Task: inverse folding
């Protein structure tokens, strides 16, 4: 049996995920591997480094800091989340990431990006060496229209949520058979067509496969939700999701709202902790 943790993105809705994962870490819940998409990657890597509270701490501290996320950063750098500050200064200076613990923890951690030239997902085991820093996580979390394309090892990439927002089937395909999914939308949510598709098509005229993937994203996403619900009903999957829409925007600037989303995640996880432990038993 291989226990897996699948973390959806959603920008600052990921504070809910941080609340859930902090409760799990506080209670010694361990997984053989995890896979994160976008904010799920940026926040979820703290599970492998065993840094309880870190994602909530730095996001609430810097959400109003123009160095972190701002229109000024978008205009001057092409990235609404400032690359140098978010992926260099914060994890090395202001709230250090524990690279040593991350590397020594045998838990696998994967991130999902989207290849802009093919429109297909790229699944990468993130090793966490200090030399590579957070390039792959940055690529996974680079939202279209408000982020520069990230090039690594000859691949041009953007947000993993474009092509595989909830990579449950990927994890099942590599042998994870006792999985927990953390979603950031309530049960009844279904994604609609993107109203900005004409803008997207024009912006990424050089990358038609990416534009097609974004045009089809709602269909792929909703199919993933249907698959998750089916697995959950049969007892083959454990899912955390908020009961109602979270009180945060994608680039939320209010630390109190971020804290509220985080606390909802903590409450949901605490309320279902015994249920989760029973689900994860090896002899189940």
Result:
């Amino acid at each position: 049996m291989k226990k897996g943790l699948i973390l959806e993105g959603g920008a600052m809705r990921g504070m809910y995920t941080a609340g859930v994962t902090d409760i799990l870490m506080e209670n010694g819940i361990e997984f053989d591997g995890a896979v994160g998409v976008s904010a799920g990657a940026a926040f979820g890597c703290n599970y492998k480094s065993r840094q309880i509270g870190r994602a909530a701490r730095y996001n609430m501290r810097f959400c109003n800091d123009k160095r972190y996320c701002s229109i000024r950063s978008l205009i001057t750098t092409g990235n609404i989340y400032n690359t140098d500050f978010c992926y260099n200064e914060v994890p090395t200076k202001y709230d250090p990431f524990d690279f040593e613990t991350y590397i020594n923890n045998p838990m696998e951690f994967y991130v999902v990006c989207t290849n802009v030239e093919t429109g297909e997902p790229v699944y990468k085991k993130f090793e966490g060496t200090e030399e590579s820093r957070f390039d792959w996580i940055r690529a996974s979390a680079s939202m279209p229209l408000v982020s520069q394309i990230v090039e690594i090892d000859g691949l041009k990439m953007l947000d993993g949520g474009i092509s595989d927002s909830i990579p449950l089937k990927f994890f099942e395909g590599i042998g994870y058979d006792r999985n927990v999914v953390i979603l950031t939308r309530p049960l009844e949510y279904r994604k609609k067509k993107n109203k900005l598709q004409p803008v997207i098509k024009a912006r990424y005229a050089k990358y038609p496969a990416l534009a097609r993937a974004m045009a089809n994203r709602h269909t792929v996403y909703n199919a993933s939700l249907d698959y998750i619900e089916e697995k959950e009903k049969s007892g083959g999957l454990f899912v955390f999701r908020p009961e109602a829409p979270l009180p945060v925007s994608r680039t939320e600037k209010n630390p109190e709202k971020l804290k509220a989303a985080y606390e909802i995640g903590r409450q949901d996880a605490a309320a279902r902790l015994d249920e989760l432990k029973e689900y994860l038993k090896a002899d189940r």
Notes: The chain is about 45% helix and 15% strand.
